[in-house]
Task: inverse folding
């Protein structure tokens, strides 16, 4: 039974950039980890029961048919007493996570800004560009209900949003992403090393890197490679570059740039273009532009790899699609629903990656079982935050890195 | 006391996220009440954990310094005991929701139906 418990917040790995928590701040995060687990595990099944027992029968009675789209289920479930209560609980959990994290960060913001500035001045890992504007899909709402989203802040040049993102992730995920919250990047590395043990990419681009928690493991795993981590949000990059420097990583650079315009890099500049939980933060028009740019900067034979939650398909029950959509409408993830509903293979094909060059792989968070219990999965999966992902990849046609590796 | 130009981290921490919040209930008072109740639940949990820390430190050292409380990190065994206690605490606070799920699964008639039936049979 004990292995089912989320780890204590204090088991988190404290790199020097991580905000300090006092006793009660850590205890509040402990409460949240347990509260989240209760919402998804113990009572999450209430949604399915409410749907089967009363929402679906009522829908059939009113329409004389089954729901045809996840949005029909959403409309019906949003009138159901149970689902409304459950959603209110979950929304409050998200809001508390932000509030608790912001209290931790803002009371020590002077110190955090000073530490970040010290690392960033000395390391050479950070390159900001004030000409980069924030796209509407990043500013329309504050993503994840984090005040300031990835890009805002309390004052000019601060690290608030990056620090708050990092300090609370461990609680939101119940430690499932590991002590450094880098389980996504570790999973990518594990996949690449297992499938292509001899592959040695020399230049790697991570688009939408935010605080670099998923790009840093790649840099660490390929110490001879140069990793470029880009994002439009300076506020996240400032924290991320300082975090990487504090961890002693040298072969990564954090550059403020938009994935929609990679013109500063020539055609064929990279062996590998990576995105991790990024595509769903975009928009219908920007995603194909970014994928086309990624195609252009990839070398022939290079790898593009996107880690995401699974796409909705005809095989996925509409009720599951509806549950996976919860964050889109309740946790400020406005492109989540449309992105997961797209035919990603076709979108990638249109961007220059023919369908026969594409593949789908399952990647799983790599977690230290000595410290953290394995991530929950299956029926009790915490939709949207589970530590199991689908990866959508392609090898750009041309002289084949892939074949050399095999 | 903070001066007029000083950054008020308490006030700033509570700012809302941009993006209109969904209404979960017909009566907005209920939405506000949920926020209060679960913030209090988190505080009680933190208090319980702090008390446990104080007890453990006193057990171990027989005396107490406040900085020891702030710096306390449970070892694996203590973390599991405390984690189990927190899980049990959440379960007590959330009993009504848990039992509502069980009731939906059971899908029973009102007890009054039984009262009526047993009076006849």
Result:
């Amino acid at each position: 039974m004990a292995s089912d418990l989320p780890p204590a917040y204090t088991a988190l790995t404290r790199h020097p950039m991580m905000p300090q928590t006092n006793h009660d701040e850590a205890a509040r995060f402990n409460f949240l980890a347990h509260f989240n687990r209760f919402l998804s595990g113990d009572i999450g099944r209430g949604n399915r029961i409410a749907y089967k027992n009363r929402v679906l029968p009522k829908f059939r009675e009113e329409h004389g048919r089954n729901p045809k789209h996840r949005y029909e289920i959403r409309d019906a479930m949003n009138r159901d007493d149970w689902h409304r209560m459950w959603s209110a609980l979950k929304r409050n959990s998200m809001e508390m996570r932000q509030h608790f994290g912001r209290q931790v960060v803002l009371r020590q913001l002077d110190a955090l800004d000073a530490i970040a500035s010290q690392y960033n001045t000395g390391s050479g890992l950070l390159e900001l560009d004030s000409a980069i504007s924030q796209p509407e899909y990043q500013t329309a709402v504050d993503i994840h209900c984090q005040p300031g989203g990835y890009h805002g802040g309390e004052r000019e040049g601060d690290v608030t949003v990056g620090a708050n993102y990092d300090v609370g992730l461990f609680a939101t995920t119940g430690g499932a992403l590991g002590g450094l919250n880098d389980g996504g990047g570790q999973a990518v590395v594990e996949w690449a090393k297992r499938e292509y043990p001899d592959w040695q990419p020399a230049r790697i681009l991570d688009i939408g890197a935010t605080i670099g928690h998923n790009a840093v493991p790649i840099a660490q795993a390929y110490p001879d490679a140069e990793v470029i981590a880009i994002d439009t949000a300076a506020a996240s990059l400032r924290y991320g570059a300082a975090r990487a420097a504090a961890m002693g990583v040298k072969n990564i650079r954090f550059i403020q740039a938009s994935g929609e315009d990679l013109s500063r890099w020539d055609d064929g500049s990279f062996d590998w273009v990576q995105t991790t939980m990024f595509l769903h933060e975009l928009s219908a028009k920007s995603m194909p532009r970014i994928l086309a740019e990624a195609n252009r900067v990839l070398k022939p034979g290079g790898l593009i790899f996107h880690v995401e939650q699974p796409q909705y398909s005809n095989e996925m029950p509409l009720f599951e699609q509806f549950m996976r959509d919860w964050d889109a409408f309740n946790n400020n993830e406005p492109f989540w629903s449309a992105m997961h509903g797209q035919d990603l293979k076709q979108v990638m094909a249109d961007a220059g990656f023919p369908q026969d060059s594409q593949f789908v792989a399952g990647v799983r968070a790599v977690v230290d079982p000595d410290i953290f219990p394995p991530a929950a999965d299956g029926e009790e999966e915490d939709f949207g935050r589970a530590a199991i992902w689908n990866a959508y990849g392609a090898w750009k046609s041309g002289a084949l890195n892939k074949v050399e590796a095999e | 006391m903070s001066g007029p130009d000083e950054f008020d981290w308490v006030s700033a921490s509570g700012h809302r996220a941009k993006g209109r919040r969904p209404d979960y209930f017909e009566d907005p008072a209920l939405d506000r009440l949920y926020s209060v109740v679960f913030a209090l639940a988190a505080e009680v949990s933190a208090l319980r954990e702090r008390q446990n820390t104080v007890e453990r430190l006193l057990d171990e050292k027989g005396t107490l310094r406040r900085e020891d409380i702030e710096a306390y990190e449970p070892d694996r065994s203590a973390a599991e005991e405390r984690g189990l206690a927190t899980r049990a605490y959440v379960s007590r606070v959330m009993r009504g929701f848990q039992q509502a799920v069980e009731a939906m699964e059971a899908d029973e008639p009102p007890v009054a139906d039984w009262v009526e039936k047993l009076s006849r049979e």
